Amino acid sequence: MKKILLSALLILGFGGYVGYYYLNNSTNAQTAPVATTAATTTTAVFPTSATTASASAPATTATAVTTNTGSSGTSASGGSTSSGITSTGQYKDGTYTGSVADAYYGNIQVKATISGGKLTNVTFLQYPNDRGQSVEINQRAMPVLKAEAIQAQSANVDGVSGASDTSAAFNQSLASALAQATA
To answer: 143: which of 15, 57, 136, 170 lies 20 to 30 Å off by Cα?
Structure first.
């Protein structure tokens, strides 16, 4: 009788855990389109320590940069640097920091570099890197998202399969950076 009661208790406990996990994860699901992409050879730099926004050209406007340290790392928010050069592309030359976007297991923040009026580089200032699975997902997704954004010259890129939260947060942060470049 004890074995049956203990078995039933164990099964109910496991069922409760599965139900709790399912409910919490299904309510946070993203509805962004997810697509796979062909293999792309890209070189990406993944920051391993605190990173802040810096200017590669003299600033013509002063903007405040604040640094916040949270459980998922250090983030630099706000701020953009513009060289004041009018370019023939769709964006103003300079370096623009996007907003911090929630990627469920951490935050994503990117810095967009515009040169010659075109998006030439996207740097990840902050990304989820405190869990093994997050590191694995982001090492696969970040180079693909960066390459697609540079190719499309836009934040409107397809999501990476298996990284829908990262993809949606990347799109949001890059869109805010590019909005600064068009203002």
So the answer is: 57
Identify the residue whose tokens are 């953009």: 80
CA distances from 46 to 26, 125, 127, 147, 173 (A): 30, 9, 9, 14, 17
Strands 34-35 and 159-160, by their bridges, are parallel
pLDDT-based confidence at 144, cuts 50/70/90? very high
Residue 97: name the closest of 85, 116, 112, 108 by CA: 112
Q: Please give the backbone phi and psi of residue 137, each rounded to the nearest 5 degrees, phi first.
A: -65, -45
Do 163 and 79 belong to one domain?
yes
| Same-domain pairing of 58 and 11 | no
20-24, long-range: CB within 8 Å, 24+ apart, which pairs?
A: none
Q: What is the pTM of this model?
A: 0.55
What pLDDT shows up at residue 164? 95
Task: State the Cα angle at 83 between 78 and 84, rounded to 5°.
Answer: 105
Q: Which CATH number covers residue 163?
A: 3.90.1010.20
What tokens were used for 42? 């890209």
